[in-house]
Queue: 2 jobs
Job 1
Amino acid sequence: MGNDTISYQTNNEILGVKIKVENNNIHYVLLKLGVPPHLKGYSYIVYALELVLIDPNLLQHITKGLYIDVAKKYGTTPSRVERAIRHAITTTFQYGNKEFINSIFQNCLRPDRPAPTNTMFLARLYYYLTLVN
């Protein structure tokens, strides 16, 4: 995350310190899943999860909230953010760590879809980061 500070407030306190610690967990989980870090979607997923860890309600407003916030940070459009995240997810589910993928996404994968939706992916990772870690 570098020197960036996140200006979201929750419960009347700024959570900048907490998010820096959890940022390492985000990278660890994504790399263990096999998300290629050279893809733009990787950075977008990291920042999206940082925002969701601060405000879980963003999971209810992916297209009208979360993608817009990520796009602003990276100077791109929400549709490009959505597409880059989808590409990273698809690549991960094709070539990633199948055992770890199944441990997180075991009961949400459908046989007719090779990968979860962006929303399902982000939600599952959010719950994994908050409940397991």
Job 2
Amino acid sequence: MEIKPYSDSDKSKREQVEIMFNNIAPKYDLLNHSLTLGIDKIWRRKAIKLAAQNNPNNILDIAAGTGDFTILEAKKTNAKEIIGVDISQNMLNVAIQKAEKLNLQNKIKFIKADSLDLPFSDNSFDSVTVGFGVRNFADIPAGLTEIYRILKPGGRLVVLELSEPSNPIINKLFGFYFHKILPFFGRIVSKDKSAYTYLPNSVDNFPYGQRFIDIMSKCNYQKPQLKWLSFGIAAIYWGEK
């Protein structure tokens, strides 16, 4: 079943996701870091280490949002060119402001683009990262196939995504927090009644674990692997072209 942000809208998932992130962009960082207790920063660093293992000359960060992942890549890797893309211009506007404050505007470029139709030629990037964005793809296999197209031979895709913990106690605690507390505060702060209900539902609907590894394999990624984080609350997936 396809999960969309706004059940009362007849717009496509892609259009609804764009609207949702445009709506919550001003408060996204506040909610994202506070509601994850800052653990997401640790996860990002682990993912970037994997993305940097092949010493990339250039990196594409998909679903860049407000730019945290992209900016961290500029700080933690030796890549000469880093591009962040997202379908939400409002999110990218925040990212651009962050990069300018850190004087990284000459190293990072942000572009509005759809993950299913990337404006780059075949075999363009050494590494591609997606942080908490694959579950928002309108079509996950199509998105992974498009990423495969623009990766150079030997290039690496690294995906960071939330999942459901296998430990029953952690699962119950996480489920209560994620489905009750997060939507409550999310609605109050962001003023978008649907966004922080959609986000937990999108995690529930995401084919995490071995199912995602299988999808990567079907999309021709070589040696797909995963690493669980924080008792299975999140996972890093990676594979090569």
